Amino acid sequence: MKADLVYLIAGIGLLLAVVLPALLQRSAASPPIVLVSVGMLIGLTPLPDGAPLDPIQNHLLVEHLTEVTVIVALMGVGLALDRPLEVRRLATWRTWGPTWRMLGIAMPLCIAAVAVLGHALGLGLAAALLVGAVLAPTDPVLASDVQVAGPRTGDHEVDEPDEVRFTLTSEAGLNDGLAFPFVYAAILLAGAGAFPWGEWLGWYVVGKIVIGILAGIAVGRALAWVAFRAPRPSLRVAERGEALTAVAALVTAYGLTEVLGGYGFLAVFACAMTFRSAERSHDYHEAMHEVTERLERLLTLIVLLALGVALTRGVFDHLDWRGVLVGLGLILVIRPIAGIVAMAGSKSRLTGGQRVAIAFFGVRGIGSIYYLAYATGHADDLVTEWMWSTIAFTVVASVVLHGVLATPVMRRIGDDGRDDSRDNDRDDDRDPVG
């Protein structure tokens, strides 16, 4: 009977993944909101007693499931970005100016502010820093309502005109890896002895980042050469449209980088960007992006349903006013202010309304769950049940608040880079599943 119930739940969940994008296209309720709600209802059913719902006891399962979901999303994000970024061309770096500001200014400000707030609420220094680091990255998985829809190839091969979507997408693609040094800082700080500043700066900040980027570029170039320029036609998979190369690319880039000791998240994004830069107008990129998008949708379905089940099965048991203050403070105050500060000196063509939108839509999601599960496995004495309750609350609050506001706000500011209320009537055909 219990096995039959699992099949029934899985079937209903998969059906929701198929019908929700079109059904909720113009609704205030986004697919992630509905999926979490369905998960909560499932949690009220007579699930097997041994269901792995305790995130601390089952941190390895949570870590690996969210890890795979994030790297698939990062591959899709890298393939979706049309704007080039070339190491030897300074002009291409300037077009990413708002992204660098959000990464270099807004993200550290968010980490510091959440850490200070947590410490003021009674957390130890290491615990406060860990909460700040875990909640730092914006999510490439749950933020599709405010991100670019996918690669534009063929006759449409031009720079992405929507600065808001581009900035939020590129930020989400990079900050998952760049938050890792701060997670390691919290873990090292919780250890015995003095904090190893030299090791942290030299290895965790510089070394692992460099390895991740270089390994990702190397894998991306190698696979692009095989796909588009291999001397034997049988090896040129782009000509056959074999889109599973996307899966091979993300697994190879991530695995190689982790073996070398670098940040695999950065490697996957760098690999996707490098592959995208080869034969940029080729339709093969659309096929690869479609594969990653479908795989991401399935994994996201599993994670969101599991999160919803956990909410009604005890994850919120240790949530108190401090956790609510941290979560809402980050979403409503800290991230918006940090984003506005970061964008204040930008010379981009962004209008005031668009800068505010970028500052506000810092969606928290599956990446935060991954980082906390990772920290649980590497410093179990540091991670508490209160942290899991707080991070779960923050993710759910972000899913609801940002999910409800994403569609009307993005229509209001206009998809063409202008604040224009006339765009309210424009059909939005993007796939809203994140």
Automatic annotation (TrEMBL):
Gene Ontology terms describing biological process: proton transmembrane transport
Chief place where the protein resides: membrane
Subcellular location: Cell membrane
Transmembrane segments: 6-24, 60-81, 102-135, 178-197, 209-228, 248-275, 295-316, 322-344, 356-374, 386-405
Source domain of life: Bacteria
GO terms for MF: antiporter activity
Pfam families to which the protein is assigned, alphabetical: Na_H_Exchanger
UniProt keyword list: Antiport, Cell membrane, Ion transport, Membrane, Transmembrane, Transmembrane helix, Transport
Record-annotated Cation/H+ exchanger transmembrane domain positions: 15-411
Membrane topology field: Multi-pass membrane protein
GO cellular component terms, A-Z: plasma membrane
Matches recorded under Gene3D superfamilies: 1.20.1530.20
Name the UniProt record assigns to this protein: Cation transporter
